[in-house]
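Subject: Translation initiation factor eIF2B subunit delta structure
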Amino acid sequence: MPGENSQQDAATREQVMAEREAKKQAKQAKKQKSAPPATKIITEVEQTTITTKLTTTTTTTARDKPEPPAATAAPAAPIAAVTCTAAVVTETGDKTRDQIKAEREAKKAAKLAAKVAKSSGAKVEAPVQQLADLKVTEKTPAPSVAPAPAADEDKKKPALSKAERRAIQEAQRAAKAQGQGQVKKAQPAAKAPVKSTATHTAPKELKRESVSPVKKTTTASPSKNSSGSAKSECKVKLFNHLVSAEKGASLFINDPLVHPSMARLGVQYAQRTVVGSNARCIAFLHALRQVVQDFETPAKKEFGRSLDAAVQHHVDHLHKCRPLAVSVSNAYKQFRNQVTQLPADVPEAELKEILVHFIDTYIENQIGKAAQAISSSLQEKITDGDVLLTFGCSSLIQFICEEAKRRQVAFRVIVVDSRPTCEGQEMLRRLHAHGIPCTYVLINAVGYVMAEATKVLLGAHALLANGYVMARTGTAQVALVANTHNVPVLVCCETHKFSERFQTDAIVYNELSDPNELVRDDKCCLKNWASKAHLTPLNLNYDITPPELVSAVVTEVAILPCTSVPVILRIKPDIGY
């Protein structure tokens, strides 16, 4: 019956519980009988630590005695029981909390005693005598009894008194001090004793070895990174925010997400193979056209969004190679705006044709036709006998001079150049190839030749919204000298170079070039500038010319004052292409 079975199960459970309680009480009774109250057993771990770390007197006497055979499992040092009132060790061989704390305190005290002994050399005979008076007996094997409950063990463990702890600590200090003295005396002896004493000094040697490599690395690192630290320390805070092109452009070539045309363009940007605002913009648009033609839309994704993300990655790559020009940034903005306006229900091939047509139209209208419009506006200003002064190399100024030569206007050009790029030499070659008479001078002689000039034609990297002209470094100086000599200054700039940024000096935003470009040869005083602390040559790419020094800005829209830039920026979408 189910009722009878439940009663039998309850009876058997009560019997099992009663038998367990009886066994526990029997074990506790045996344990109390087997463990004497006064004698405290020390485990093998404690004995080995005491014999090896605290005293050497027992080890020296043990050396004279014959060693036990290897087959026996007995330890090298005798296992003893100390008659002083120490904490009771459990039958399983584990240490109690009091013993662990006592050992830690003993180690700390021994270290302090060793330091004191080294400095003063005091004798420690009394503590050694106390250690010798300790009675040592053989260890009796502990019976294999199951551990008692935790509550009973805590009651049986007596706490050490202060006097007992002091006695143990003094004995340990004396033993360690004496052991260190013997180790120092035994160093000039034979090799065998040195090996035996090396066990005592091994912990300290390990500590020294673990610290010394860190010191070596810390001392060696400044010598290796001296150049890098010097460069970072000597960089003036006034120019900390300026962007410099990364030298390791080749590190980004193997990026699988970068199109080969963009990778090649990035290297050309970094190596200054492609320079000039218009040239950089045209090269960017040609590479962008290759990216669009070779682009494949990922599965389950929209063409416009995926293409926008891919082009953004390519633009970031170019920016790492060299900061983008204003013309490149404006072209990318126009392209991105065109991508967002693509229809969604048109095949991918037609969308690519739309974007390719947009890129070709942008190059033709914003750069090609704009240059023709600016040239036609200036041809009325160039007459026979004019002396045109220009600075650096500008593709737009070159086109204007070539057009004037085709019109058979008798004029000559003064090309002003400056280090370190010396772009005026390329301008001189191009003009001379078309039969235009030229004069080449450096910028330090601009005051001497400015009296001969009738007009100053300058190119521009960008035209800012507040009317300031951002151009190659040295342009502002040429404009200032021209203003002093009452020579009109005409800045030729297409509208795709107009920027919405406001800037009144060349420090707020600029681009840093390689400082080594300023070092001409091995005889230059800046040859070893990297090894000199607090010295870094400053090589700025652009400067800012205030609108007060500019007579007019020639654009494809009209010849306008510099203050008309915001108007052009507002109506530019209507000018369009």
